[in-house]
């Protein structure tokens, strides 16, 4: 059995264009990357405002019977409540583009290359069945690794650029893990916005 690591740039000849790039589209789900979803100016302004204005929280989680610091800062909002600028505008733009009734946004702040998110799928009990997750990236480019859970193995390493939107269908949360690995090289801060349709009665999202 061979294991294949596609660099998205070799797998997708059109990656350097600005239109949507379909990275996967089969029974294991659909993954679409849109590099310049936001204008460079809106991406930069949004990054600066959110970095300054969001009440970023450090959290600890219980893992393997130990309390460990989550290696990034977090915030989350219900989209029908009070939101710091420019979240309402960004949420509307994502909703209009994707056509999904997003209810919540989870924000991640990766302060530098030591911050990360371990490979995971988003918690299914918090997602309305059939609805996608949309990730908007701001600030420094960080790679996301997206790998199938089972054979046949497929793994993508995708640089998530400022202003890009990554759309993952609901099925991808069943069949793939995604994560942002730590990097050794100096890298500036990055913010991601994860738009989700919360299942009725779901408690606070963790991923
Ligand atoms: O920062 C990202 O782009 C990914 C974040 C993520 O996977 C999550 O919040 O569940
Ligand atoms: Fe996630």
UniProtKB/TrEMBL annotation:
<keyword id="KW-0560">Oxidoreductase</keyword>
<feature type="domain" description="Fe2OG dioxygenase">
    <location>
        <begin position="101"/>
        <end position="199"/>
    </location>
</feature>
<dbReference type="InterPro" id="IPR005123">
    <property type="entry name" value="Oxoglu/Fe-dep_dioxygenase_dom"/>
</dbReference>
<feature type="region of interest" description="Disordered">
    <location>
        <begin position="1"/>
        <end position="22"/>
    </location>
</feature>
<dbReference type="InterPro" id="IPR027450">
    <property type="entry name" value="AlkB-like"/>
</dbReference>
<dbReference type="InterPro" id="IPR037151">
    <property type="entry name" value="AlkB-like_sf"/>
</dbReference>
<dbReference type="InterPro" id="IPR032854">
    <property type="entry name" value="ALKBH3"/>
</dbReference>
<feature type="compositionally biased region" description="Polar residues">
    <location>
        <begin position="1"/>
        <end position="12"/>
    </location>
</feature>
<dbReference type="Pfam" id="PF13532">
    <property type="entry name" value="2OG-FeII_Oxy_2"/>
</dbReference>
<protein>
    <submittedName>
        <fullName>Alpha-ketoglutarate-dependent dioxygenase AlkB</fullName>
    </submittedName>
</protein>
<dbReference type="GO" id="GO:0051213">
    <property type="term" value="F:dioxygenase activity"/>
</dbReference>
<keyword id="KW-0223">Dioxygenase</keyword>
């Amino acid at each position: 059995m061979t294991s294949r690591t596609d660099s998205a740039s070799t797998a997708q000849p059109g990656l350097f264009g600005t239109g949507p790039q379909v990275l996967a589209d089969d029974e294991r789900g659909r993954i679409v990357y849109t590099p310049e979803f936001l204008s460079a100016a809106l991406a930069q302004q949004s990054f600066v405002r959110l970095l300054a204005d969001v009440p970023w929280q450090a959290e600890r989680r219980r893992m393997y019977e130990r309390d460990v610091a989550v290696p990034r800062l977090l915030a989350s909002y219900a989209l029908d409540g009070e939101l710091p600028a420019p979240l309402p505008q960004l949420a509307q733009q994502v909703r209009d583009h994707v056509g999904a009734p997003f209810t919540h946004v989870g924000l991640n702040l990766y302060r530098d290359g030591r911050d990360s998110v371990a490979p995971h799928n988003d918690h299914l009990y918090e997602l309305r069945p059939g609805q996608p997750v949309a990730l908007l990236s701001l600030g420094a480019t960080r790679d996301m690794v997206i790998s199938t859970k089972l054979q046949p193995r497929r793994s993508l390493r995708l640089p998530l650029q400022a202003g890009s939107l990554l759309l993952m269908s609901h099925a991808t949360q069943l069949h793939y893990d995604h994560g942002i690995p730590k990097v050794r090289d100096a890298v500036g801060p990055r913010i991601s916005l994860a738009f989700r349709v919360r299942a009725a009665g779901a408690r606070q999202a963790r991923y």
